Amino acid sequence: MSNLKYCLNASTIMTTPIMRQIQVAAEVGYVAIELWHDHIDAYLDAGGEIQDIRKAVDDAGLAVPTTIYLAGWFETDGEEHIAAVDECKRRMEHSAILGAPHIIAGPPMGSADYYQGAKHYRELLELGDQIGVKPSMEFLGFVDQLNTIEDALEVMNKSGRDDATTILDPFHIFRGGGSVESIAKLSAGQIGISHYNDIPAEPTRIEQHDKDRVMPGDGVFDLKRYLELLDQVGYDRYLSLELFREDLWQEDPLEVAKVGMEKMRSTVEA
User: Fold this and answer.
1) Which of 75, 64, 65 is nearest to 136 (CA)?
2) What pLDDT does residue 270 have?
3) Integer CA distances (angstroms), 65 to 6, 56, 95, 113, in order
4) Residue 256: φ, ψ to 5°
């Protein structure tokens, strides 16, 4: 598994300004960083330019595998859908400037019409063809539907696009009630990126949310099997540390990122 590249998802140090996020990732030795559009917009609203962020990433020698995220595109209709797609386009344009090959597209929180979602996902992919970035559809374990690999595959297949992709994440596989073995149903080309984290023994599965994730190796998820399956399908790109812990947000981001790197290496390279 040594071919996997270590990436820092900016959610792990969420309260740190974006330029410092980039510095931290580079200082610790990550080769990539996933950036959030809320952080990008905060920088732009304060008078910065998107090209400043691109320069900072380039100067740090980092790649940006994805930016996060697109919302409202799946479930909306009419004027609401037009507005959602306009916002998606704006974010996709920023993502392309930052050199990201993928932008993460989130599912609806409630019930999901897979035929409608597949049509809209195809629309996003076609828009991405024009802009130069590929939307990757994420399944989320805590939403009502579209919470397993099988659900994601159904929408991907219904979109009729051979380049449809999804996002893998131990937390969402566990929280959605799916099986880690379902990774074998994907090809490497169908994986936009793999997020990385672990699952605590408590609370119960259906009570867990983003805030409950723990560092790799500190939980009960079978990360060894997860990594074996990534290798089996030929995925050898980024493994991105994604946590949402408020306790870690209060700590020195450099130390959090260092511990995260150590935890990743200990589970991947053991």
Assistant:
1) 65
2) 83
3) 11, 15, 10, 29
4) -60, -45
pLDDT tens digit string along 247-264?
A: 999 999 999 999 999 999
AA identity, residue 188: A
Query: Which residues on adjacent β-strands are paired with residue 180?
Result: none
CATH of the domain at 163: 3.20.20.150
Q: Cα(93)–Cα(104) distance, rounded to whole angstroms?
A: 13
> Residue 74: which pLDDT band, with cuts at 50, 70 and 90?
very high
Give the N- to C-terminal CA distance of the chain in Å, as an integer: 10
Taking the CA atoms of 106, 112, 114 and 117 in sequence, report the sign of the dihedral they define.
Answer: negative
Q: Before 203, cis peptide (omega within 30)?
A: yes
Q: 58 CB contacts (<8 Å, ≥6 apart)?
A: none
Range of the domain at 160: 5-268
Q: Residue 124: which of 169, 86, 152 has the closest Cα?
A: 86
What is the overall mean pLDDT for the chain?
Answer: 97
